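Good morning,

Attaching, inline, the backbone tokens for the sequence recovery test we're adding to the shared suite. The designed sequence is right after.
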């Protein structure tokens, strides 16, 4: 189960942020924004090494005492960040990948909406509910 999901634009501006506990939102925002440095580092290292550019999943960015932070980048440089409680030992790498794929699919659906202005923050309640369902594993 994820405790926080963030979608960050290609210019590193936050487009969407959801966490299960609103009291911890500020600390999660700090963790998400600090993880962007690791994302940029992994992307630049991947370009120099000539690695497979089709691999969107970056894996675990870093681990803290209480949380693990995972990253995913689309071909258009939109970044998805998931924060997972580190006490959750049942969540495996393939389940994290699956969560990212579902979030990516939801994101593609919302930006395909003709009423969505590209580059704006996502403020859709159905989108928020779908992301929360993915976070809790009820999808």
């Amino acid at each position: 189960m994820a405790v926080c999901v963030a979608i960050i634009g290609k210019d590193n501006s936050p487009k969407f942020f959801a966490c299960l506990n609103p009291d911890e939102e500020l600390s999660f925002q700090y963790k998400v924004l600090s993880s962007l440095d690791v994302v940029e580092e992994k992307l630049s290292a991947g370009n120099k090494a000539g690695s497979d550019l089709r691999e969107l999943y970056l894996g675990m960015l870093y681990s803290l005492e209480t949380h693990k932070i995972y990253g995913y980048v689309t071909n258009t440089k939109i970044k998805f960040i998931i924060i997972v409680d580190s006490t959750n030992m049942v969540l495996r790498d393939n389940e994290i990948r699956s969560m990212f794929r579902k979030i990516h699919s939801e994101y593609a659906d919302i930006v395909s909406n003709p009423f969505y202005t590209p580059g704006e923050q996502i403020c859709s309640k159905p989108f928020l509910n779908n992301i929360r369902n993915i976070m809790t594993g009820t999808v």
